[in-house]
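== Fold encoding ==
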Amino acid sequence: MIELKSAEEIGRMAVAGQFVGELLAELKDVAAVGVNLMDIEHHARRRIKERGAESCYWDYAPSFGRGPFRNVLCLSVNDAVLHGLPHDYVLRDGDLVSIDMAVGIDGWVADSALSVIVGTPDPADLKLIEATEVALEAGIAAAQPGGRLGDVSAAIGEVARSYGYGVNGEFGGHGIGRTMHEDPHVANSGRPRRGMRLDPGLTIAIEPWFCRSTDKIKFDEDGWTIRSADGSRTAHSEHTVAITATGPQVLTRRPAHVPASA
């Protein structure tokens, strides 16, 4: 079932979205060479608790995965792209890290992700991250009232192909609102002018993710971490977006810079 939100409800989602955007901007600065992934995870736990928010990841137990997810972040490094489990790993020069988080505040949820390189960047990794960010903006621009969901998917897929990347169809974006995952599924490739109508009040998470040299994936033994099948680098970008009568409204925009607190 798809629930269209009122302007007031979208405003309440925007409160959660602002917090998610600010915390992701902060975590982007926390991620650095020599920092342990668990330090990033615990930093986020502390911030979420201080805000009185609730993580949507903690105790999340979908059909895949082994047992409930007992973290507030997905931290995916290098060839890992989705659902990476925070673990005892110290970031090295040149690592590509994707940070994904979703929280609820007063019953309304927002979800967002970014990818960042710590230390010395590889130009090929910069291109990969850029592709996900450009695809995300293209998907957002296509999310116009009266349009079709396929317009969003087609815009993302077109960017992927223009950069020379394939698109995996197994995981994509999703509806969001009272819970993290709602209908509809938002594919990262599709046909324009097809699919459900984009009516004002629809809220979706748009999340392009690409692998450098494959569109195939594999799962780690933990049942959570998804990697490129050929071991190539990966990247992931995501925003929560509301369809309004005047166009798409991004609820999880990040400030340009947020100083990381101790």
